[in-house]
Each structure stands twice: as structure tokens, then as C-alpha cells.
Design brief:
The chain is of the alpha/beta class. 42% of the residues lie in helices and 16% in strands.
Length: 227
């Protein structure tokens, strides 16, 4: 077998291992709905993306608009059922481009961005589902709305007519993640939101225990990123 087959085997294998682990965590948590494995493809080489697609993966997460356009622009039309999720922070001046490219935007964290997205969707004629990113650890350097301000942002996003599906978080590194995931789940319940995007390579099983509907796995899926 020549070299070119090596990465695809490895990625098909890691995907299958992850899907098994996701399923085991779901059963252990006694949950009925299967969580979605989002393959975070930022900074991954092209051949790994193609290997993931060949293995049947269709849901991908990206954190930058321009990088995502370069990676996905030409692939979009070739794969049925592709779902691209924006999981990185978004500048208002890129709202229109983001609406054109992404199927779900997970990172609304301020009213100004919600308004820019609403305008872009009206202009383009799309109603992209959105999540609000919550800064559960209240870290100053991290994006996400402070938990205390979530209620008013939820109200504003709904008043704009956006299709608000749920909440997303990225807990502080070096802290136990369980309390953050539990907190996000509680906030989502309080606001009647069903989608919970939480958990990454190192903690997706814990996130599923706390109710994650979407786990975002990068290195655990593809291997180490290119810097
Ligand atoms: C990069 C990234 C991930 C994936 O992280 P891994 O540790 O590689 O699984 C998940 N969520 C967000 C928001 C990210 O930026």
C-alpha cells in the first residue's frame, strides 16, 4: 500500500473509535438522543480533510471565516449533507461572509454581532441557526457573554427573529470542566434551549454526561494541528 493511504486509514480509525466512545458515553449517561461528533478541522492539512470526508464525516467545525472559506469553498458543492459550524469568534464586518459559508454559527456573544447577523441573513435570504457562546468561567480574555448578561442577550437574539438553538462554551483550562458543563446545561434549560455544544478532545465524555448534544473534537479526530 502506498503512503497516500496511511492518513485516511488513521483518520477512519480515529473517527470510528470516537464514535464508539461517544455512543458509550451516551449509554452510560442514560440519554436517548445521540450526540453529534463535530470534527474540528481548523489548521488541518488538506489530505486529512479528504480522509475524513471519505470516512463519512459530514459535520465540521472551523474557527476562522477566511480559513474556512479556503478549505471548504470548493468542497461545499461536492458533498451532500455537509454541515459547517463556526466555533470561533466572529467580527461584525465578517458577518455576511459567515452567513454565506456556515450552516450554524455557534459564537454569538454580543448584541452588536446578533444585529449584524440578522442584517446579513435578511440580505442573503438565509435563516442560519445560531448558538450563544457563554463565558462560563468569566475569563476576561475569552469571548462569550457573561452568564449574568445571558438573559438579555437571549431576549435580543429572539427579538431579532434569529433561530436560536442553544448554547456553547469553552471552559477555562486547568479547571475541572464538569461544573462548567453542568452550569451551561442549567442555563440552556432555563431558557428553553435544546442544543448544547460543549466538550473537546480531552473532555467530550464528561460533556456528554452533562448533556452535550454536540462535541467538538479536533486533535482527537485528526491528530496534531499544523501551527
Ligand atoms: C480548536 C477548538 C476545539 C477542538 O479542540 P481539540 O482540543 O483539538 O479537540 C473545540 N472547540 C473550539 C472552540 C476550538 O477552537
Amino acid at each position: 500500500m502506498d503512503d497516500i493511504h496511511m492518513p485516511s486509514c488513521a483518520i477512519a480509525q480515529s473517527r470510528s473509535t470516537l464514535l464508539t466512545a461517544v455512543e458509550a458515553a451516551r449509554v452510560k449517561a442514560g440519554r436517548s438522543g445521540a450526540p453529534t461528533l463535530v470534527a474540528v478541522s481548523k489548521k488541518q492539512p488538506e489530505e486529512r480533510i479528504d480522509a475524513a470526508l471519505a470516512a463519512g464525516q459530514r459535520v465540521f467545525g472551523e474557527n476562522r471565516v477566511q480559513e474556512a472559506r479556503e478549505r471548504w469553498g470548493h468542497r461545499r458543492a461536492r458533498y451532500d449533507g455537509l454541515e459547517l459550524r463556526l466555533i470561533g469568534s466572529l467580527q461584525t464586518n465578517k458577518a455576511e461572509e459567515a452567513v454565506k459559508l456556515f450552516d450554524v454559527i455557534e459564537t454569538i456573544d454580543r448584541p452588536k454581532l446578533a444585529r449584524a447577523l440578522a442584517r446579513a441573513m435578511a440580505k442573503i435570504g438565509r435563516s442560519t441557526p445560531v448558538l450563544i457562546q457563554v463565558n462560563t468561567g468569566e475569563e476576561p480574555q475569552k469571548s462569550g457573554i457573561a452568564p449574568a448578561n445571558l438573559g438579555s442577550l437571549v431576549g435580543e437574539v429572539r427579538a431579532l427573529g434569529l433561530n436560536l438553538e442553544g448554547l456553547m462554551c469553552l471552559p477555562p483550562t486547568g479547571e475541572p470542566v464538569g461544573p462548567h458543563f453542568g452550569f451551561l446545561a442549567q442555563l440552556a434549560r432555563h431558557h428553553g434551549l435544546g442544543v448544547l455544544s460543549m466538550g473537546m478532545s480531552g473532555d467530550f465524555e464528561t460533556a456528554i454526561r452533562f448533556g452535550a448534544t454536540h462535541v467538538r473534537v479536533g486533535t482527537g479526530f485528526f491528530g496534531a494541528r499544523e501551527s
